[in-house]
Design a protein that fits this description.
378 residues, alpha+beta, Outer Surface Protein A, domain 3, Rossmann fold, 3 domains, 7-stranded mixed sheet, 3-stranded antiparallel sheet
Amino acid sequence: MYPKVKPALARAWRDLQTVQFGVTPAHAVVLGPVDTATGSLIDRIDGTRGMDLLRAEAAGMGLPDGRADEVVRRLAGAGLLDDATAGGPRAQAVRARPEVLERLGPDLGSLSLVHRDPGGDLRGVAARRAIRVRVRGAGRVGAAVAAVLAGAGVGRVEVLDGGRVEAADVAPGGLGPDAVGRMRAEAAGRMVREAAPGRAPRPGEEGGPEPGLALVVVAPRDGLHAWAPDPDTAAGWVTTGIPHLYAGVLEGTGLVGPLVLPGATACAGCMERDRVDRDPAWPRMLVQWRSAHRRRATAACDLGLAAAVAGLAAAHALSFLDGELPASTAARWEAALPSLHWERTEVPAHGDCPCGAGRPAVPARTGGGSGADRPQGP
């Protein structure tokens, strides 16, 4: 073990015997009492020394026997400790790729705060490299989402879109001016490869099998299809249980969410049924809007708002891929120009939708009906 204090957390002494790791309340940890000699020992827990050397240096500082082990245990218990050798075989495979580590240094620091156990940062990067994600849409929002996911270490990012890149698709962080006139899918694929920190692992490489599709990000160039998603388009994902996240810009409003967990949270069918329940004119208007959007040459899409939506959607996608449920799960975040105040709206599951997310749990009885009822998941 080569322990090191997580470098992502800035350190400051609150007083002579209390040290604070981290600035922001979400991750800050206060440790005390810590005397001056122990503070000097903490400075040396930087990943370059094994436990035997740390024990010897602690003794040289006049610290009692066992103090080095005690300090390491306290730091580990507080989630402040990393280990330069931890993480398992897949993490070691990432360590063997210095070009990946150099590019993902800031991401490793962030992951070390989310995954508090030693080696959690490299395990997180290794897990991302084994993930396959699909982005539907290569416009101002979708292309930027794909670039961020690839740049953050997601191993396989596919982008689906038709037609050729137009000048209006060009955006910082997404497709560049040199892509104009090329097929969108081809241009987006090249963009993803250029954004990625090194070559993606091949099937079976770095200790992982060929990945299935972990997430679909639906970011259509026509923001109407993110605002009012088509249940027929999403039917395959719902049936096969593939999570999907909606994002886009419609007129002057940006939206992120909902993240749909098939069978557990509201899907596109639920959203459509809920809207019809609240507004019987909705189907008639939706047909007219979709027809108008097909005839419209260029839809309104503020570049700053598109960048904000793409960044937030990519962050939510990464949070989900890292094993968390982001705030867009079963909810939609919206911000409208010019105030850009982000508001969260819950997206309820509908009881009549065949996806099953809105159906009440069915109680089950143990044999003979003598046992207690147990609620079953959807």
